Structures are given as structure tokens and as C-alpha cells.
């Protein structure tokens, strides 16, 4: 009615036909969905899965000083863990640089069929709880006078917000300001049917969603529906002229804001994206020698990114910047946490809160309103926000098909502190499942990268921060690991997504007996070490080493935009030679991608098979059968029958099995790996 729908969808304009279409096609096939999604003007939130409205609202107002988001939270939604954490979100809002969120907790006492926790609390309990969170609370519950009560409360809230913002923006910030919030008490299904078939509807759980499901067939329900709709007195509000145009009563028309102020027309929600300024990633690269921590190197790069984009780029981290070795970003920025005098009022670009849900919600709100963000996380714990990522992917997919939605930046994840290096944390910290979860999303929007060294990581990050409309997952080590490729080689490798690594292959990879593939930092090291071992001990075995940095190249041509054509695939993995594929995560991810390549008979996939504990890095590899010895053993097994391999295969397999046992005994005795295992393999 406020005109936004008609602006974006002429078929839903303010005419008799437009209204009819809206009413008759709502929540039926072909019409608008029952929960908000990206086809709805003004929306930046996939409705349906409850819990995230508040954190997304806070993300939207960050660095948007003139924006106020009003977020209505149902008392059912308020029971979710994600919402429970979200009440604290204002503690990350600096009123000088950001806008404000006005939370409205709507207490109608019921969820689907049970009473709600908040609905059963007294005003005193609620006021104490939310005062404790730091809010100024106002309860709106005067049902006989609800419009005036609500209008006065909104005025009050707006005034409070302005007071806080004015103080901060005039250089006299209020320390720990109390932001306003409203608690609205109304009966569930208020103004709907009161009683049907002798049972109370209004004010009970029976009004949830569809209060009169049998109105088509049941007389009493039909009568209740008729009376309910007639109570709106629609004819006093709208008159339809002969040409079908709807004319609103003066009173109603006066309530509609101008186009620019209509909630459904807010440009923040559909055309606010501007690309970031990007530093030269090559300036942060190193020579192809020695060891570098991918996280440390990208930290330096991000510090520069932040300098160049002081108000349009943020990092949201579950308190892991230091532990993920990304702390070099603090060379150019600080944290942003208003309760901490060291981190308040400084324009810090890093929000650290130990809630992956909040990080994801903030990131979504920030990105969907046109900015760019990064969420670095322990590999294992990103799984916590799996369903949020999935809901976001749904929003993105529909948004890409919605013509009036302009492109947005990408949601970028960096997974580090990976499962292979959990020598102090152990089994609980070993879980690469997020990769599988991302793979299942629509191929047009998801990208998964496992850059094998720091130079490749820089090139990948540079690409992701500029890419539009994607969910990018980047995985890499925080520990120093070898730099294998020069910056130019890294660039070429990342553009290709996968390539033959000639320096560690026999005759540059020509005419191989077996192809060894690494995908992921630690397992790539093992593949290279296996190639070096075999070169030394069985030089007549012809080995080709391939590295995959862009996981999606593996999928069947046509299934993903990055998928290799069959000839390209065969140029790397050969037409018919055996392949030993050492993968960073669960082998199922690679198998899923390669299933339609019809090459499973010649590809052995190694990876994480849910064996883990607090143990050394190399023991992690051996207990999951993904070490250099396992790669070499499989390479020998799959090439048995090749005459010059047969002569030595069994002897070497037995030797490598012995090496694994020897290593096991060594670490039991010394609680560490032998030093020489981490030496850069020689060729
Ligand atoms: C995460 C999640 N769990 C469960 C549901 C199923 N569900 C749909 S509506 C609802 C009750 C919501 O109650 P409330 O937030 O109070 O909203 P109301 O309908 O009362 O306005 C539930 C449990 C859901 N949509 N999302």
C-alpha cells in the first residue's frame, strides 16, 4: 500500500487489479512467499529461519550514520540462541560513525502452540533483564489507546537515539549510552477472529499463521473471515475509480511517506554497493623460497586494505584475530567495542565477539547494504553458522534473479587454525564440514579456494574482496609453510584454478605413470614430499604433481562456472592414468564433485577420515592415512603392473609402512615430530 511493490512490480501497483493480485497470490505458487525473501522490496533478510533479524539489522547500520533500523523480534524468535546474543550488539555501535537499531520485542505470549518464555515474564522482570543488557525500556501495552501509545514511544525512542548520536558527533560522547528499546504487548492474532467452534482464536496460539483454515468449506469459519475482513472498512479507506486506480482517503494518503522514505524503497537495500579500492597484492608477496604464514601475509595486506577503505570494509571475528595470526591488521586499525575504553570511538574496523552467529549476522547486514566484509574463523567453528550461510545463499540466489537488485559485494570467509594443526586442542577442533556445506549451495554463487601458499592466498583474497554476489570460502594455514610459487606463478595458478607443478614432477610432468594431487596447504606439502621420496627411491616411476587451489574446477563441466572442460581436465589428470588425490577435508567433498567425471575407478581420494586427537601434525596425517608415506604407498599400489615399478613396489610399500610405525613410536616417546619431516623436499 505504501507504493513500493508497484514501483518494482507494475503488476502489483495501487489499482484494483494490483490489490487483487497481491491478495490472491500471496503465499501460493507463483505469488510472493509467505516469508520475506529477496524478491520483496526493502528486504535484506531471508525470513523463515528465526533468530537473525537483530544482528542483521545492526550490521546494516554500521557505517551508515543516517540510518535507523527498526527491528521487530517475536517472543518466539527471542528464545533462539542467536537472538539471545544479539541484544548486546549495540555495544559494537559507535554512534559517531554508525546509525542505530531500535529493537521492538513483540510479546504476544505464544509461538506456534506453546507459550513463550518472554511472554510469561512480568514487566518488572523484563525491564530488569533488558536494563541489565543496557537498554532504556519502554513497554507499550495500552490496547485501548495503542496507536497513541506506540507513536509516543517511537517519538521517545527517536529522541533518545538523536541525543546519543548528537553527543557522539559533537565530540562529547556519552560513555556506555543506554539505547532505547520497546516492548510491545498485544494479543496474538489481535483484531482477527475472536472465537470459532467455541474455541478462542484471538489471544491464543490458534491464531498462528492461518487461523481459519477451513473457511472455504466451513460456514462458521467463512462467516468469521467475512466479519474479520469487513472490520477493516476498506471502502472507507480506498475508492477504486472506473479505470481501476485506487484513490486513498485523505487520512490514509497522508500517512504514506514519499517514495524515497518508503521502507520498501530504501536504496540501502538494493543499490548501495560501491567497489572497494584495492592495494596491489603483489606488493605483499615474497620470493618462492623459505616459509611464510598465509595469515600473517594477508594480515599485512588487509591492514593496507583498511587504510584505503576506512568506512566500507570491516572484519568480524569470533575473538580470533591473534590466535589466527591475523593481528598485523592492527597496524592500521583497532577493535571496535564501545564498552572497552581502548577500543571505543576510534573507528576500528575489527569487531571481535565470541559468537559466530553475531559475526555472520553483522556481516550479512553489512554486505547486503552495499559494503564488503570478512569473517575469519577457526575452520571447525564456522560450522556453527552453517544454516545462516545456507539461508544467506538462498537470499543471494533469488536476489541474483531479481532484476531490480543491483550487485553486492561477496561474503568472504577465511578458515584457518585448520584440523591438521591442532596439536594442542585435539579432536574437538578437527572438522572440515563447512566445505561440504558450501559445496551444496547453488554453483552460481559459491566458490571454495585452498591456496597452497602465501602468494596464492594473497592473489585469492585480492580476487574475493572484489568479486560480487558470491560466498567465498578460503582455507589456509596460519603456520609458516613453504612459499612454492613466485608471485607471477601464483597468479597464473590461481587464475587456472589447478595446474601441473613441474618443479616437483618427473620431466616436468611429461607422460606420467601416476598423478599425485594436493589440495590444501598441509596435504600439498605431503604430496610434494611423496614425490621427492619416490624420485629418490624409485626414479624410474614417472610422477606428475598437480595442485588444485580452486576446488570447483573438479566438478563436471557445466555444473559450475569454474569447472574444467573434459580436455582441460584430462590435460591435468590424464585420460587414463591412476590418480592419488590428497585432500584437505573429507574425501566425500572431492568424490561428490568428481562423481560425474566417471573417473572414480582410477582416482584414490585421501583426506580427513575423522581420526584425531591431541597429537602432532604428522601423526594427524598418518592416522588419517593422508601422509607422504600413504601417498607413496598408494602411488605404488596403483602402478603395480608397470614393469619398472613392479620390481620394487612391494619392498618400498613395506618400508613406508614401517616408517609410519617408526614415527608412531617416536612421537609416543618424544611427544613431537622428528625435525626432518618438515624440511622442504628437494628435487
Ligand atoms: C529457527 C526456527 N525454528 C523453528 C521455526 C518454526 N516456527 C515458525 S513460526 C514459530 C513461532 C514464532 O513465534 P514468534 O517469534 O513469537 O512469532 P509470532 O508468530 O508469534 O509473531 C516457529 C517456532 C522457525 N521458523 N525457525
Structure description:
There is one protein chain. With 683 residues, the protein is of the alpha/beta class. It has 4 domains: 1-33 and 246-269, no CATH class; 35-189, Thiamin diphosphate (ThDP)-binding fold, Pyr/PP domains (Rossmann fold, 3-Layer(aba) Sandwich), CATH 3.40.50; 281-480, Thiamin diphosphate (ThDP)-binding fold, Pyr/PP domains (Rossmann fold), CATH 3.40.50; 498-678, 3-Layer(aba) Sandwich (Rossmann fold), CATH 3.40.50.920. It contains 21 helices and 21 strands. The strands form 6 sheets. It has a 6-stranded parallel β-sheet, sandwiched between helices. Strand 18 (514-519), helix 16 (521-537) and strand 19 (543-548) form a beta-alpha-beta unit. Helix 3 (53-61) crosses helix 11, helix 10 runs parallel beside helix 14 and helix 14 packs across helix 15. The radius of gyration is 30 Å and the shape is elongated. The model has no long low-confidence stretch (mean pLDDT 95).
Could you outline the blueprint of secondary structure elements for this entry?
Elements lengths: L3 H5 L7 H10 L27 H9 L6 E7 L6 H6 L13 E8 L15 H11 L2 E5 L5 H24 L10 E6 L9 E2 L2 E2 L18 H12 L3 H4 E3 L5 E3 L1 H6 L35 E3 H15 L4 E5 L32 E3 L3 H13 L3 E7 L7 H16 L9 E6 L16 H7 L6 E4 L4 H13 L4 E5 L4 E3 L4 H10 L1 E3 L13 E6 L1 H17 L5 E6 L17 H8 L5 E5 L3 H8 L8 E4 L10 H7 L4 H12 L3 H28 L13
Parallel strand pairs: 1-2, 2-4, 3-4, 10-11, 10-12, 12-13, 13-15, 14-15, 18-19, 18-20, 20-21
Antiparallel strand pairs: 5-6, 7-8, 9-16, 17-19
Helix pairs in contact: 3-11, 10-14, 14-15, 16-20, 20-21
Amino acid at each position: 500500500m505504501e507504493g513500493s511493490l508497484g514501483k518494482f512490480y507494475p503488476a502489483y501497483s495501487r489499482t484494483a487489479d494490483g490489490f487483487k493480485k497481491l491478495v490472491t497470490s500471496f503465499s501460493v505458487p507463483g505469488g510472493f512467499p509467505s516469508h520475506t525473501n529477496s524478491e520483496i522490496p526493502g528486504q535484506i533478510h531471508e525470513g523463515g529461519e528465526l533468530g537473525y533479524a537483530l544482528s542483521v539489522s545492526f550490521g546494516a547500520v554500521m557505517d551508515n550514520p543516517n540510518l535507523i533500523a527498526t527491528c521487530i523480534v517475536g517472543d518466539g524468535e527471542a528464545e533462539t540462541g542467536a537472538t539471545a546474543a544479539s541484544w548486546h550488539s549495540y555495544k559494537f555501535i559507535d554512534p559517531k560513525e554508525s546509525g542505530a537499531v531500535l529493537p521492538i520485542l513483540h510479546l504476544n505470549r505464544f509461538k506456534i502452540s506453546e507459550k513463550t518464555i518472554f511472554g510469561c515474564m512480568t514487566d518488572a522482570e523484563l525491564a530488569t533483564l533488558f536494563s541489565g543488557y543496557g537498554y532504556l525500556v519502554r513497554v507499550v501495552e495500552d490496547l485501548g489507546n495503542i496507536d497513541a501509545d506506540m507513536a509516543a514511544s517511537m517519538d521517545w525512542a527517536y529522541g533518545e537515539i538523536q541525543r546519543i548520536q548528537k553527543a557522539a558527533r559533537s565530540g562529547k560522547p556519552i560513555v556506555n549510552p543506554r539505547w532505547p528499546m520497546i516492548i510491545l504487548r498485544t494479543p496474538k492474532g489481535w483484531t482477527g477472529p475472536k472465537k470459532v467452534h467455541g474455541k478462542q482464536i484471538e489471544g491464543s496460539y490458534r491464531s498462528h499463521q492461518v487461523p481459519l483454515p477451513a473457511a472455504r468449506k466451513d460456514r462458521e469459519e467463512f462467516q468469521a473471515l467475512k466479519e474479520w475482513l469487513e472490520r477493516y472498512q476498506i471502502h472507507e479507506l480506498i475508492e477504486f475509480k472506473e479505470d481501476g486506480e485506487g484513490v486513498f482517503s485523505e487520512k490514509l494518503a497522508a500517512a504514506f511517506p514519499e517514495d524515497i522514505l518508503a521502507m520498501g524503497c530504501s536504496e540501502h537495500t538494493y543499490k548501495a554497493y560501491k567497489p572497494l579500492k584495492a592495494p596491489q597484492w603483489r606488493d605483499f608477496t615474497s620470493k618462492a623460497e623459505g616459509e611464510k604464514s598465509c595469515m600473517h601475509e594477508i594480515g599485512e595486506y588487509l591492514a593496507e586494505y583498511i587504510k584505503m577503505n576506512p568506512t566500507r570494509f570491516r572484519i568480524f571475528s569470533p575473538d580470533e584475530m591473534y590466535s589466527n595470526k591475523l593481528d598485523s591488521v592492527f597496524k592500521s586499525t583497532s577493535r571496535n567495542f564501545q564498552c572497552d575504553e581502548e577500543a571505543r570511538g576510534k573507528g576500528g574496523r575489527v569487531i571481535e565477539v565470541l559468537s559466530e552467529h553475531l559475526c555472520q549476522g553483522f556481516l550479512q547486514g553489512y554486505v547486503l547494504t552495499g559494503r564488503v566484509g570478512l569473517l575469519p574463523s577457526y575452520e571447525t567453528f564456522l560450522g556453527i553458522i552453517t544454516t545462516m550461510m545456507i539461508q544467506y545463499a538462498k537470499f543471494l540466489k533469488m536476489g541474483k534473479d531479481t532484476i531490480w537488485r543491483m550487485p553486492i559485494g561477496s561474503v568472504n570467509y577465511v578458515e584457518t587454525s585448520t584440523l591438521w594443526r591442532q596439536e594442542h586442542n585435539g579432536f574437538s577442533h578437527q572438522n572440515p564440514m563447512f566445505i561440504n556445506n558450501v559445496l551444496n549451495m547453488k554453483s552460481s554463487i559459491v566458490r571454495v579456494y585452498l591456496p597452497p601458499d602465501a602468494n596464492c592466498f594473497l592473489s585469492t583474497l585480492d580476487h574475493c574482496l572484489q568479486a560480487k554476489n558470491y560466498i567465498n570460502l578460503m582455507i589456509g594455514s596460519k603456520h609458516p609453510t613453504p612459499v612454492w610459487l613466485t608471485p607471477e606463478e601464483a597468479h597464473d595458478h590461481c587464475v587456472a584454478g589447478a595446474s601441473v607443478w613441474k618443479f616437483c614432477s618427473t620431466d616436468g610432468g611429461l607422460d606420467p605413470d601416476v598423478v599425485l594431487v594436493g589440495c590444501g596447504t598441509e596435504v600439498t606439502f605431503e604430496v610434494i614430499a611423496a614425490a621427492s621420496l619416490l624420485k629418490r627411491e624409485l626414479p624410474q616411476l614417472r610422477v606428475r604433481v598437480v595442485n588444485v587451489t580452486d576446488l570447483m574446477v573438479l566438478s563436471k563441466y557445466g555444473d559450475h562456472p569454474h569447472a574444467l572442460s573434459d580436455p582441460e581436465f584430462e590435460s591435468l589428470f590424464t585420460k587414463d592414468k591412476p590418480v592419488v588425490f590428497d585432500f584437505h577435508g573429507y574425501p566425500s567433498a572431492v568424490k561428490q564433485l568428481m562423481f560425474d567425471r566417471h573417473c572414480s575407478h582410477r582416482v584414490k581420494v585421501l583426506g580427513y577420515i575423522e581420526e584425531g586427537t591431541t597429537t602432532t601434525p604428522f601423526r594427524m596425517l598418518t592416522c588419517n592415512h593422508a601422509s607422504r608415506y600413504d601417498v607413496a604407498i598408494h602411488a605404488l599400489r596403483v602402478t603395480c603392473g608397470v614393469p619398472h615399478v613392479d620390481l620394487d613396489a612391494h619392498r618400498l610399500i613395506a618400508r613406508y609402512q614401517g616408517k609410519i610405525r617408526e614415527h608412531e613410536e617416536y612421537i609416543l616417546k618424544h611427544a613431537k615430530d622428528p625435525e626432518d619431516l618438515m624440511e622442504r623436499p628437494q628435487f
